[in-house]
Design a protein that fits this description.
By secondary structure, the protein is an alpha/beta fold. The protein contains ten helices and eight strands. It folds into two domains: 4-229, Phosphoenolpyruvate-binding domains (TIM Barrel, Alpha-Beta Barrel), CATH 3.20.20.60; 232-259. It has helices at 4-8, 24-30, 43-46, 58-71, 89-102, 117-125, 154-170, 182-191, 212-215, 233-249, and strands at residues 16-20, 36-39, 76-80, 107-109, 130-135, 174-178, 196-199, 207-210. The chain has an eight-stranded parallel beta barrel, surrounded by five helices. The longest helix has 17 residues, at 154-170.
Length: 260
């Protein structure tokens, strides 16, 4: 099974690949095809139908992480810490430990820069691997009035760089860079000794991640600029469903061979 050392050792050697999953069925399909699978709080939107990622609890994240772990046996599994589950060091450590105690996840991920560094350090000191996440942070979208691209001015650039270094110093084994100007993401990637995983942050990151329902065309409420759809999944499923419905109505299904 892939571990955090496998991910770390790919920096500067081979691009890291990652995708999200929320259940055992898709986790089994994705397993061993990507370096790690993120049980993302994006499930709040694509799975739960909420308008943002804030509508999912830590219990729900652990539930889905358990399911993913049952489906994937090779790729590293990373569980997202949900909104409100790591507001202080004590709470963060408690909930991070739950991931290790109740699931087979190899690491957890949390959003935030410099202010989260002490929390990251506390979790790492308790033996839980942590992936950081800076730049456009979906859990902050509501308070920021939307999804804002980061790294557009000197102040933002400096904060991102300081945050990346602080998270690395705190013990994070990798950092997701989301919605960051490409040239800034390149600079951050070059200055860190740990891998960066990009999403909407340019090609120079050490790896890339996308949400599975975006990349396979199942989530069509909106399409972010950084998403490339590799499959029109929604249309394919509807086409197959319509064929099933038609076969039932015309009594073409089930046949004698499909009946007991």
């Amino acid at each position: 099974m892939s571990g955090i050392n496998t991910i770390r050792n790919k920096k500067g050697v081979e691009k890291i690949t990652a995708i999200t999953a929320y259940d055992a069925l898709f986790a089994k399909i994705f397993d061993a095809e990507v370096d790690f699978i993120l049980v993302g709080d994006s499930l709040s939107q694509s799975f739960g139908g909420h308008p943002d990622t804030l509508g999912v609890s830590i219990d729900a994240m652990i539930y889905h992480t358990k399911a993913v772990c049952r489906g994937a046996k090779t790729s590293l599994i990373v569980g997202d810490m949900s909104f409100g589950s790591y507001q202080n060091q004590s709470q963060a450590v408690h909930n991070a430990l739950r991931f290790y105690q109740e699931t087979q996840a190899g690491a957890i991920k949390l959003e935030g820069g410099i202010k989260r560094a002490k929390i990251v350090q506390s979790i790492v000191e308790e033996g839980v691997a942590v992936m950081g996440h800076i730049g456009l942070m979906p859990q902050f979208a509501r308070s920021e009035g939307g999804y804002k691209i980061k790294g557009k001015d000197a102040e933002s650039v400096n904060y991102l760089k300081e945050s990346a270094l602080a998270l690395q110093e705190a013990g994070a084994f990798a950092i997701v860079l989301e919605g960051i100007k490409s040239e800034v993401a390149t600079q951050i990637t070059q200055m860190l000794s740990i891998p960066t995983i990009g999403i909407g942050s340019g090609v120079d990151c050490d790896g890339q991640i996308l949400v599975w329902s975006d990349v396979f065309g199942f989530f069509d409420t909106f399409k972010p600029k950084f998403v490339r759809r590799y499959l029109d999944g929604s249309a394919l499923i509807k086409e197959a469903l319509q064929a099933f419905v038609q076969d039932v109505k015309t009594q073409k299904f089930p046949t004698q061979e499909e009946s007991y």
